[in-house]
Specification:
The structure is a single chain. By secondary structure, this protein is α/β, with parallel strands linked by helices. It is built from 10 helices and 12 strands. It has helices at residues 32-36, 47-57, 70-81, 97-104, 146-154, 188-191, 206-213, 222-258, 274-283, 307-316, and strands spanning 17-18, 64-68, 87-91, 108-112, 128-133, 159-163, 182-187, 200-204, 266-270, 286-287, 289-290, 299-303. The chain is globular. The two termini are 31 Å apart.
């Protein structure tokens, strides 16, 4: 059985400052009134209504939208959609759920081993599904060549699936790749700091998105997911405008301090002994991500949090030899 380990504090880690989950550190207080109105006494049928709202809000009229319980459910739907593709191409050092799904859906995974690949590193194959996270997880690198890659793949009847969970944290936040062979996945969970409520959406050509919807669980969002999505689409913009700027400011400050690079809201750092460091940080009330599940030894990933919390982490790392793994 192929299992994966994800970030986020477990029950016995609730008291730690959680740098292991890469989400907006600011709480969306405006959602309280919507969650309070969640109709838990009936089955929630909200998908179609909010898909139409997303299509209009983000000017995706020529495409189709599928909402789901976070990007992870949308990935399951995507793997169902590509069931007639024999092979998938994955980055070896990235979100491990893609690898697990390849095995679950009996796909032959081909791996790109380079930690930060360029366009020239992608072997182009016919009738193949390519998966990439942009900006990547855990490197935080933004790939600016994906439109060119998609054009080359289109000529081979291959498709490109882009996990854009962290794209809103970059300067490219309003970018949408609208092509007939591109499926893109977006997360409201990450940008609104609500990992306990699974909400996201996919956009792409109608035939492929409709196929994905065949695999979606009934009532996948649940009443709280529907209520949160209503609030996000109604009042979310002002929250993001304020909080994402704060995250960017802190990211730039940490970049200068630690000399690490990222385009996202998290950093990947090479350290002398990750297990020892993670243990020491836990004693100081700090939780960071062990990167062994990404296939990276002696590396940690930590997110950008509020200034006072970041100061605590920076102080704890002050005497640690830190370097970029790429």
């Amino acid at each position: 059985m192929f299992t994966v380990y994800h970030g986020g504090a477990r029950d016995d880690e609730k008291g730690l400052i959680d740098f292991s989950q890469s989400v907006n550190p600011y709480y969306p207080r405006f959602l309280k009134k919507y969650l309070k109105e969640a109709e838990i006494n009936r089955y929630p049928y909200c998908e179609e209504n909010y898909e139409n709202m997303i299509k209009e809000k983000f000017e995706l009229d020529e495409l189709e939208i599928a909402v789901g319980a976070g990007v992870t459910e949308l990935l399951y739907m995507t793997f169902y959609m590509i069931k007639n593709y024999e092979e998938v191409v994955l980055l070896s050092h990235t979100y491990s759920e893609n690898k697990r799904l390849s095995y679950l859906f009996n796909k032959k995974p081909l791996f790109i081993e380079k930690i930060v690949p360029g366009l020239e590193d992608f072997v182009l194959k016919r009738r193949t599904a390519y998966f990439i996270v942009n900006p990547d997880n855990p490197t935080g690198v933004y790939y600016g060549f994906l439109r060119a890659l998609a054009e080359e793949l289109n000529a081979l009847e291959s498709i490109l699936v882009i996990d854009e969970s962290f794209l809103p944290f970059t300067e490219h936040r309003n970018e949408y790749i609208k092509m007939e062979n591109v499926i893109a996945l977006r997360s409201f969970t990450k940008t609104f700091g609500i990992p306990g409520i699974r909400v996201g959406f996919a956009y792409g050509p109608k035939d492929k998105i409709f196929k994905m919807k065949e695999f979606r669980m009934p009532w996948s969002l649940g009443a709280y997911g529907c209520a949160a999505l209503k609030g996000i689409l109604s009042e979310g913009d002002s929250f993001l405008n304020v909080t994402l700027r704060k995250v960017e400011k802190e990211r730039d400050r940490i970049t200068k301090k630690l000399k690490l690079k990222t385009d996202a809201n998290f950093f990947l750092a090479k350290v002398p002994d990750s297990k020892k460091l993670i243990s020491e940080l836990r004693k100081e009330g700090i939780l960071v991500r062990d990167c062994q599940s990404f296939g990276l030894e002696n590396a940690i990933r930590f997110s950008v949090r509020k200034r006072n919390e970041n100061d605590m982490l920076l102080k704890a790392l002050d005497k640690v030899e830190i370097a970029s793994p790429f």
